[in-house]
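Collaborator request, handled under Task 6.
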Amino acid sequence: MKIKANKGFGGVLSMRKGQILEYDNDVVLQDLLKAGYIEEIKEEPQEKNVTKKKKGECTRESKRNNK
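Structure tokens returned to the collaborator:
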């Protein structure tokens, strides 16, 4: 599970406020969630970075020979 620390804490798992990490011990995670020390981060599907070209726009990287 991907988690974010709401405040700093130490023990079996130690984190500082704002730290994000992946952790998989369900017993520890449930205890920390219940106490409010961490929150689960839901990963959103990433969109493809697609850029649309305007009509007549050149797709070359170089500006040379760009007509």
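The cover message to the collaborator said: "The mean pLDDT is 83. The two ends are 52 Å apart (CA to CA). Please let us know whether this matches your experimental observations."
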